[in-house]
Known about the structure:
- Two copies of one chain form a homodimer.
- By secondary structure, chain A is of the alpha/beta class.
- Chain A has three domains: 4-47, lambda repressor-like DNA-binding domains (434 Repressor (Amino-terminal Domain), Orthogonal Bundle), CATH 1.10.260; 56-156 and 287-317, Rossmann fold (3-Layer(aba) Sandwich), CATH 3.40.50; 158-285 and 319-325, Response regulator (Rossmann fold, 3-Layer(aba) Sandwich), CATH 3.40.50.2300.
- Chain A is 44% helix and 17% strand.
- The first copy, chain A, is built from twelve helices and twelve strands.
- The first copy, chain A, has helices at 4-11, 15-22, 30-43, 49-56, 72-87, 101-113, 131-135, 158-171, 187-202, 216-227, 241-253, 287-302; strands at residues 61-66, 91-96, 118-121, 140-143, 152-156, 177-181, 208-211, 235-238, 263-267, 281-284, 312-315, 318-320.
- Chain A has a six-stranded parallel β-sheet with strand order 2-1-3-4-5-11, with helices on both faces. A six-stranded mixed β-sheet of chain A has the order 7-6-8-9-10-12, with helices on both faces.
- The radius of gyration of chain A is 25 Å and the shape is elongated.
- Chain A starts with a helix and ends in a 7-residue tail after the last strand.
- At the A-B interface, helix 4, helix 5, strand 2, helix 6 and helix 11 of A face helix 4, helix 5, strand 2, helix 6 and helix 11 of B.
- Strand 2 (91-96) of chain A pairs antiparallel with strand 2 (91-96) of chain B, so a sheet runs across the interface.
- Chain A binds a DNA duplex through helix 2 and helix 4.
Amino acid sequence: MIKIVDVAREAGVAPSTVSRALNNHPTVGEEYVRRVKVAAEKLGYRPNGVARSLRRQSTDFIALIIPDIGNHFHTAVARGVEDVAREAGLSVLLCNSDEDAAKEATYIGVALSEKVAGVLLCPHNSDSDISLLTENSIPVVAIDRTLGENIDAVTTDSVHGAREATAHLIREGWTRPGCSAGPTDIETAKWRAQGYVEAVLAAGGEPIVEHGTFDQQGGADTAAALLDREDPPDSLFVSSEQMALGVLAELKRRGLEPGRDIGILTFDDTPWAQLIYPPMTVVEQPAYDVGAKAARMLVERIRGGSRLEARQVSLPTRLIVRGSSLR
Amino acid sequence: MIKIVDVAREAGVAPSTVSRALNNHPTVGEEYVRRVKVAAEKLGYRPNGVARSLRRQSTDFIALIIPDIGNHFHTAVARGVEDVAREAGLSVLLCNSDEDAAKEATYIGVALSEKVAGVLLCPHNSDSDISLLTENSIPVVAIDRTLGENIDAVTTDSVHGAREATAHLIREGWTRPGCSAGPTDIETAKWRAQGYVEAVLAAGGEPIVEHGTFDQQGGADTAAALLDREDPPDSLFVSSEQMALGVLAELKRRGLEPGRDIGILTFDDTPWAQLIYPPMTVVEQPAYDVGAKAARMLVERIRGGSRLEARQVSLPTRLIVRGSSLR
DNA sequence: TTGAAAGCGGTACCAA
DNA sequence: TTGGTACCGCTTTCAA
């Protein structure tokens, strides 16, 4: 392994000069820069990132802590994050927390130990303890959910999206929309249920909310519970794409056809939403942009913006009407 | 930031003893271990991973270089990798290469600079240059595609899967299957086209292969090209899930219904495959297992198995017949 | 502008 | 078994 002293010897200069030359320090003579670069090239020198990190007291890593990369929304977020990070010369540490506070805490520990430059966290809930990070001045940007007023956050306007979607159901003539909602301790799930409730109440109706896990099973369970009621809803607002998969399976099992026997729409647009029959009406979230924006904000913090006011950005959702919600 | 000397002072021992105690070195007296752990706990000591890495000449990171985390197959692979890595105390660096040799090379450089413990690479093609890694004894395991006989690889049996799928189409009574194939320079695409060709020839038919990119656009393009032929195929073997989305869109545009007007099946099972109408027949690949298995093999190499023979593991695919391929 | 040298925070060798 | 200390490779201050 070639190191800096080897290059220095080859170029006939001091190690410090090599370091400066290679890092484009302005105070190095042109002749020296050339000599150093030639020597480095000749020897195939590759700087040791670990040593640099130790000396500089900071790395070029950022940690991305999300519940599950398998979830389509988070996949897109990750893609946005990675694109911006690469652009900024940062590498992404992928951490799946599985909505598990313990795993989340473990990863926060890793982020600290490994001295990451910053953390993007989709927190299990607002109680997530990031004090270890803030105490050590490691910038944090919350994704999709918030972490209190003092922490940067990029979210989507779930309340508005859910309200708009539910109002659309009612406008279409469905008289009794129900809600397949996510876990009560997850902020986005709460927001979406809230938007739903607001819209139903505004129309003088009675909200019917069933909470379940934020996955396929949760979708199937809540759909079953709602439809097994004595006074079942005639349409469903589903809180997430993963849940929608479960809901659709349950409807299929019961021989219920969306858009005919029951109205249905869901959060998150997916590639398959328009391929199923009938095509699924969705509340689209700009997932990629959420990731990209959050990453950009984190980069700003890393580049020295610690004195900036905390910024809470909410990106707009968009209702895409397809067949499943029509009457 | 508390460091090891602080703990040493608090515990009244030498720094080396603290290090040994905290790393469960067997030669430390119980009393000392206790004192050190108490002191560390009291001061809230967190080891500095960067310093440890520099001294040990190795980190606890592995790089996962895949074309695109947005691709369902790779998402599942990533999940498998991450689960095994966490179990082994390793963190995953996420790198999207976008099937771009330059980006791939960049990330290989990062892996080297950052002294990762190992690399999982889904190579753009067999020419991918990993000499930087092998020369520096950084273990590499290829995922989904191979890197020559000397490098560990975990793949799925694409040839067999494609042959079985195409044979199924023919058995169902489709007389002229065509193939929406991926790029000619990607190994898996070649394998799948090969399996398709073998099956068609075995049945005495004429292979019709159209190559396109491994994405939605490529699916739409190849489907259009195939169907615009003077002697169009009456059924399609599609090379990947992403392509299938494009193919389906193109069929829809032309008013062709799978399983009635045209037979169709694709590689990769997805959550939506059984929700569309008709449900999609697929060749399922054990994506999660591919990632998990590859990660396990990499961990073995990292834990000192550099003298092991290179192992090439091929995981079986499974044909899942649904409606889209029936006649 | 360049060079010498002191660390960054652990680890592991060597001596006691 | 424990302590002292050199060292991992780079950056950066200080002196020349």
